[in-house]
Design brief:
- With 212 residues, the protein is α+β, with helices and mostly antiparallel strands.
- It is built from six helices and seven strands, in the order H-H-E-H-E-E-H-E-E-H-H-E-E.
- The strands form two sheets. Strands 2-4-5-7-6 form a five-stranded mixed β-sheet. The chain has a two-stranded antiparallel ribbon with strand order 1-3.
- Helix 3 packs parallel to helix 4.
- The mean pLDDT is 90.
């Protein structure tokens, strides 16, 4: 039987995860403002303004992503446009090291399926620590659509504790704020009637969510 969490514990751990994702860019904004206030050097002020701009954009992108990936994103039973999911995924995942190839059709899918997709992309991104390409394709069509993500990059690997956390197996790594995201991904998958697998294939990892 899968491990379960009390609703209050799940909510608290997800909130901790969101805060963890926002601490770095928000802290950088604060540091930049301190430089503007204390440093009279024009070059340093230009550097601080650039830091504030980039960090604020990063914080905004992470908030928009987390709103869809973890939040309510509409009323119960709401559908979400895959085009909106693509936009927040690019803002969150793409940088100088990682590129996203999005091969999904633009259509409305049930809220939990889109939340699952975004969480799968987070998992896939963690398998290529040095960057690379994330290629996302549909498995099936319509409202029952599943997903296949190929994460390709140097030293691609499946983090040791992730498969057990996704499956919710007893004896899995303790479900703390660091482990809650893969655990939550498994909860979403089971709510959609899908099974998630992570398979290493040389310098790539294939993450699949599909009916079994």
């Amino acid at each position: 039987m899968p491990v379960t969490l009390e609703a209050l514990d799940l909510a608290a751990l997800l909130c901790s995860r969101v805060c963890h994702d926002l601490i770095s860019p928000v802290g950088a904004v604060v540091n930049g403002l301190e430089v503007l206030e204390e440093d009279k050097d024009e070059e340093m002020k230009t550097f601080a303004l650039d830091l504030i701009k980039k960090s604020a954009q990063q914080a905004s992108a992470r908030l928009q992503f987390c709103r869809l990936a973890f939040g309510a994103a509409g009323s119960a039973g709401a559908a979400i446009d895959l085009g909106d999911a693509q936009g927040v995924a690019r803002g969150f995942l793409e940088d100088g090291k990682t590129r996203l190839e999005w091969n999904l059709p633009r259509e409305l899918l049930p809220k939990n399926r889109v939340k699952l997709l975004l969480n799968l992309l987070m998992l896939a991104g963690q398998t290529i620590p040095r960057g690379g390409t994330l290629t996302i394709d549909p498995v099936g069509t319509g409202q029952a659509m599943g997903f296949r993500i190929v994460a390709a990059g140097p030293q691609a690997r499946v983090p040791q504790t992730v498969p057990a956390l996704v499956s919710g197996e007893p004896g899995a790594h303790a479900v703390d704020s660091h482990a809650i995201q893969p655990f939550y991904t498994g909860l979403l998958a089971r709510s959609c009637g899908l099974t998630v697998t992570l398979e290493p294939e040389g310098e790539r990892v294939v993450v699949t969510a599909q009916a079994t």
